[in-house]
Amino acid sequence: MQYLRSQNGKGKLTVVQSSVLDDIVNNVQRNVVVQLDSLQRLPGEMTKPQKMMGYRIQIYAGPKATGQQVAKQYERRCKEKLPGISTYVRFVQPRWTCRIGDFQNREDAQLFLEKVNEANISKQATIVRCEIFKVY
Known about the structure:
Layout: H1 19-25, H2 32-38, E1 51-63, H3 67-81, E2 87-92, E3 95-103, H4 106-118, E4 126-133
Antiparallel strand pairs: 1-3, 1-4, 2-3
């Protein structure tokens, strides 16, 4: 019978993983929207983020004519006061909106709404049910 001995420095291990995992391990913070657009995927990984019904916090809704500029101002304010939260400026007929977060249940959205109110980001912040990106 032959026994194998462990010898330090005699082996090699290669780990292949996405850049997103590297960022998580190294505690690099990025905006979720940027991550979704710039993911480097391994062969066989999903090519699109999955969507589902959930909740976001709407911090602004304004008119078609001037709403886009104001919505982007709210987005900048939110990114300054709550870094790392995903933001979405969209035209939802008939108005521009700025929504934040991807919450799978209303309770999580409610807890985050309290943080939004404490940060004094918007006086019109409210929870809306809409399609969100699934967070793992």
